[in-house]
Amino acid sequence: MKKPTVALINDTSIYQSHFGCRLVCQTFREQFARTGLDLKISLKRDFNLADYAEKLAAVDLVVINGEGSIHHDKHRHLLDLAGQFPSVLMNCVYQENSPHPDLSKFLYITARESASTAAVNAAGGRCVTVPDAMFASSFLRSYQKPAPTEDLGETDNVVRQYLHVGPVKVRWKIGFNTRYPTVAGYLNKLGSYRRLCIGRFHAAVASSVLEIPYSTWDSNTWKTRAMMQDMGVAHLHFDSYKAAKANVPTEFPEEIRRFATEARGRVEASFDRVAEIARELAK
């Protein structure tokens, strides 16, 4: 029997140095292989549809990795695809977007946290909550973190932060960023600390799997706040960096351990569903 064919849209792994992007799309490839899907074409987020329409029409299913792209009316062209090709939208944030006529045309939608799920469903889509794909990454789950050598570490945040120096407001670089030459380099950095104050969503995902105690603070969307609520640790998310830093726990919460353990199966089940859809379309 012929393998169902898929296209992956918003493949961040081959166009960015962000460690989370690389692990997320590595997981997409792993899951396509596990479920018997043949990945025929992979495209970055922003591409000229006219250049690739013929190739997208030739596959059985278009799979869009929503990741952190679809919020505040950004990158609406990703939603347009459901009006032109059989499509699924996976692993997305969805926040404060104007109505879109093609949202209801997706054959399957998953959001990484329940706030986005509620927003999709309120806008006319049919969405379920599935933890971020990175929770199922074989690389992350097999990675052996080093023994920590420092107490408290801080990541950066996508939102620019400022420090008042007298009457002047200047940019203040907080913590280490997500762009490392290797994924292992970033994970080594996380693992070098006993505790973390985190402003990055995927750093929180990685720390959940690696069992490093952490607190989080607000970014440019509700994704981190909502994930912390879903994990049952809303008390460890804060409006500001200052508050998060003052409240980093010393023990790893059992709620996060349980969520991270169960997340892998939930991610795999979502790809099982995508494979079922692709097989139906391939008949």
CATH architecture of the largest domain: 3-Layer(aba) Sandwich
The tally of domains stands at 2
Structural class: alpha/beta
Counted by DSSP, the helix tally is: 10
Q: Approximately how much helix is present in the residues?
A: 25-40%
The radius of gyration is 19 Å
Shape: globular
Span between N and C termini?
Answer: 10 Å
Low-confidence stretches: none
CATH class placement of the largest domain: Alpha Beta
What name does the CATH topology of the largest domain carry? Rossmann fold
- Average per-residue pLDDT, rounded, comes to 94
Fourth CATH level, the homologous superfamily of the largest domain: Response regulator
Strand order of the largest sheet: 2-1-3-4-5-6
Summarize the biggest pleated sheet. 6 strands, parallel
What order do the SSEs take from the amino end to the carboxyl end, as H and E?
A: EHEHEHEEHEHEEEHEHEHEHH
Counted beta strands: 12
Our estimate of the beta-strand percent is: 15-25%
What this model shows, in words?
It is a single chain. The chain has 283 residues and is α/β, with parallel strands linked by helices. It folds into 2 domains: 5-136 and 264-282, Rossmann fold, CATH 3.40.50.2300; 138-261, no CATH class. The protein contains 10 helices and 12 strands. The strands form 3 sheets. The chain has a 6-stranded parallel beta sheet with strand order 2-1-3-4-5-6, sandwiched between helices. The protein has a 4-stranded parallel beta sheet with strand order 7-10-11-12. Strands 8-9 form a two-stranded antiparallel ribbon. α3 links the parallel β3 and β4 (87-92). The longest helix has 29 residues, at 254-282. The N and C termini lie close together (10 Å).
